[in-house]
Amino acid sequence: MREEVRRHRRMVGALMSWLPFLKLHEVRDPRSRQGRRWQLPTLLRAVLTGLVAGRKSLGETESLISEMSPAVREKLRLPPALSDTTARDLLVRISQFELRQVIHRMVRAALRRGTLALVDFPFHVLVLDGKVTSIPSWDHHYAQMKTYDDGRQAHGLVRTTTAMLVSTEAKPVVDAIPIPAETNEMGIFPHVFESLCRRYGELFKLVTYDAGAASLANAQLVADAGKFYLFALKNETRFLMQRAIACVGPDSGEFSRATTEDTLSDGSTVRRSVFVGKAKKGFKDWGHLRTVLRVRSDTFDRSGKLIATLDRYFISNLVHTEMAWGQWLLLVRRHWAVENNAHWTLDAIYREDDHPWIEASPKGVLAMMLLRRIAYNITTCFRSVTQRSEEKRRFTGWKDLLRWFYNAFIAASAELLKGLRSREDAAASS
Questions:
Q1: What are phi and psi for residue 243, nearest 5 degrees?
Q2: Which domain holds residue 92?
Q3: Closest by CA position to 344, among listed 129, 38, 100, 39
Q4: What is the dihedral of CA 411, 414, 420, 421, to 10 degrees?
Q5: Number of structural domains the chain divides into
Q6: Does the pLDDT value for residue 428 go beyond 60?
Q7: Nearest CA-CA partner of 127 in 362, 277, 338, 283
């Protein structure tokens, strides 16, 4: 019981510590001044509080605020009651650019605080990946209309490109760039990359993407910016894949440079091996290409019998000697981190696909997606960095973490939170 009480104070303090760095007061309010009951920062703090507490709708967030400990409401500067319709009316109008800037401010603050210290690689790495959320509406801008020939009902697709910093313990989302309805992941890549360079140009040196963006134009764009790329390849009939197979394929003579082995929950084992080759002549216009990779995944059942084998191929303009063999294998595995960490958490824990909170407004859906990524960053920083115990940092479950926030918001008393001050409070009293 004593540990749980202490945890209440830590959870409230964790959210309090991040809110000032978001600078929500700098977000432009799209509403007219007349008739505003609650200021924009108050409403955004309330929505973020609901998200980190695992609420699945604006209605559940409204209930949380009303049931919350008065002491917690005071510390978080929340209203005594929240109207879900008032919050929704704001979210369907707020600019996605304003909310993306909140993400940028949070990331820069985390870097200054040392929360995002470099680990595992000689430089910072960004992984990019597309994410799609289906909703029953579309506007041909934020949401692309999807139709079917078999009579199924049309729906809208809200698409974003997620950028995750995977060279830190926390692995935060550093941006989520909307993909307009008229283009796709390959088409939006130049805009995404140039935007990341403007925001974080001095932070990262290497960017990875799956085969959806592996074009010569995109690779040249990265190389011309003085950065490195790692692109996945698919489709064995395509030229690049054929050259990669010739370079590091099973018949190339290349041998495994590094290996990892993981035991899965069902008792099976996955052994991954990386084969690294120097890009030889024959890649035509890809003059900047330096390294070709093959990662072989062998799956064994409990008895040790081989039951599946899969080869994946990658290309990079980074010279293979710039990293150790094990780092190359880790780089490929981190390439999947955006899907396994952020996207899985957003869908399985925050229930983004099942409970988008807003459905009739694609712009409102996008606003909620951006706020959900801010909440994800707050929780992943606490889970992976703030907790003092290495065991807790490694094994704390996401559902447990959100439940801890919820319990703290309901139960923390004024006595327990006595002396707990945010940076805003400290600045006001100095």
A1: -70, -40
A2: 2-96+357-429
A3: 129
A4: 110
A5: 1
A6: no
A7: 338
